């Protein structure tokens, strides 16, 4: 946990430099396949520092994350036999048992697994690599990633733009609850539409 905390503090320091935007892109890219700290923390810090650029920061985070997701897919599709042991040993949140569960979920909910992981605190990197390992349709994977990651980052930037420091404190405290509540509403709407159309 001390290592994670040091990484968290290191990420936040980029907000006070002229390299904040490139760092946001690289962080979003890396987090989609191997880095443990989500880009949300740097996104919020940058948006608070320059509120008028909030949506530009969201776009940068979205593009970086989606491209990073494509890299994760490629790792799973073409290099998992070589890199699997490394990920299980050195990348937080990866386990063989977890991958068995991911495979089971993909067999039933493919699109929604990617969308949920992209939007909620579920580790997106496990799903991006798993999508490649289990040969999930790449176009569907990219659409789900585009929708979920953009929704997540633009929502955060929009809230910071309109409510400032107050919303940063609120998001950091209740982010998990908020995202799961939105997901429940989204899935409920999907079930309703599917049932009555």
Automatic annotation (TrEMBL):
InterPro entries: DedA_domain, VTT_dom. Pfam families: VTT_dom. The keyword Cell membrane does not apply. The chain crosses the membrane at residues 20-45, 57-80, 122-144, 177-196. Keywords: Membrane, Transmembrane, Transmembrane helix. It comes from the Bacteria. GO terms for cellular component: plasma membrane. Residues 39-159 form the VTT domain. PANTHER family: ALKALINE PHOSPHATASE LIKE PROTEIN, DEDA FAMILY PROTEIN. This is VTT domain-containing protein. It comes from Syntrophotalea carbinolica (strain DSM 2380 / NBRC 103641 / GraBd1). The lineage of its organism: Bacteria, Pseudomonadati, Thermodesulfobacteriota, Desulfuromonadia, Desulfuromonadales.
